[in-house]
Amino acid sequence: MRQNPSFVLGDIPEIRRLIEQNPWVTLVSETADGLVASHYAVVLDPDRDDLTILGHVGRPDEAIHELGSHELLVIVQGPHGYISPGWYDDNPAVPTWNFVVAHLRAVPEILGDEENYRVLGHLVEHFEKRMPEPRLMEGTPANAEYARRISSGTVGFRLTPTRVTAKRKLSQNRPAETVERIIDQLENGVEYPNPALAAEMRRARR
Fold first, then answer.
1. pLDDT digits (tens, 9 = 90+) for 167-198
2. How many angstroms separate the CA atoms of 141 and 148, rounded?
3. How far apart (Å, rounded) are the C-alpha atoms in residues 81 and 193?
4. φ and ψ at 64, to 5 degrees?
C-alpha cells in the first residue's frame, strides 16, 4: 500500500481500535505455489498492549499458507466508501474513496494445541459476551467435549507485527467546510449513506 504523509495512521491505540472494531481480516501469503488469501477473525492479544494479534486457520489452510515459514500479511479493513466530487465545491474535481486500513506483517508464531484451545476460548468469549445468554466453549460439559474435538481441526497463531502500514484517508486535505458537507452527505444523504465512515471522519477531525 502506497503511503501518503497526509494520511498516515501512526497512533497505536487508534490502530488497536481499528482491529477491535473490524476483526474480520484478510490473510495473505506468498507461497511456493503463488499468492494465497484467506479470511478469518482475529483478536488483540489480551496480555499485550501493542498490535499483537491472535487468530487461527482451519486445516488445511495452515499448509496452503505455509504458515510460520515466511511473512504473513494481515489486512484490517475499516469503514470505507465513495466520495462524490459533487460534495466538494464548484472547482474541477474527481471522485475518490475514503477509507481506514492497516497492513500488519510478520512471520507468525504457531501455537501449540493447548494454547490454541485457550485462544479459541478467548475468541468465542470475546464475541459471545454481549449475547444475553453467552454460549461459551466450556459453558457446559457437552460444549467442552465438542470444543475439544473440533479444535483439533484448527491451527492457532500469534502475530507480532514487525512492519505496520496504516492509513486513514478521510478528506483531511480538504477545507473544513467541505469535510462537513461530506460528513452531512454520509449521515443524511440518500445516494451513499455511510454513518460509520462519517463517524471516522469526525474522529479524525478531533
1. 999 999 999 999 999 999 999 999 999 999 99
2. 11
3. 9
4. -65, -40
CATH code 1.50.10.10 for 5-173: no
CA atoms of 158 and 127, how far apart (whole Å): 18
Q: How far apart are CA 23 and CA 26, in angstroms?
A: 10
Grid cell digits, residue 167: 492509513
Return the closest-CA partner of residue 181 out of 163, 167, 198, 160. Answer: 198
pLDDT given at position 7: 95
- 143-150 contact pairs (CB < 8 A, 24+): 147/117, 147/120, 147/121, 148/117
- Residue 14's contacts (CB-CB under 8 Å, 6 or more residues apart) are 168
Rounded Cα distance, 158 and 163, in Å:
15
Report the candidate in 54, 63, 51 with the shortest Cα–Cα distance to residue 10: 51
Which H or E run contains 44? strand 34-44
Q: How far apart are CA 30 and CA 67, in angstroms?
A: 10
Q: Give the mean pLDDT of the chain.
A: 95
The amino acid sitting at 56 is H
Cα separation of the two ends of the chain: 25
Largest CA distance in the chain: 67
Q: Estimate to the nearest angstrom the gap between the alpha carbon of 174 and the chain centroid.
A: 26
Neighbour tally for 187: CB within 10 Å: 15
Count of other CB atoms within 10 angstroms of residue 85: 12
Domain segments of the chain as ranges: 5-173
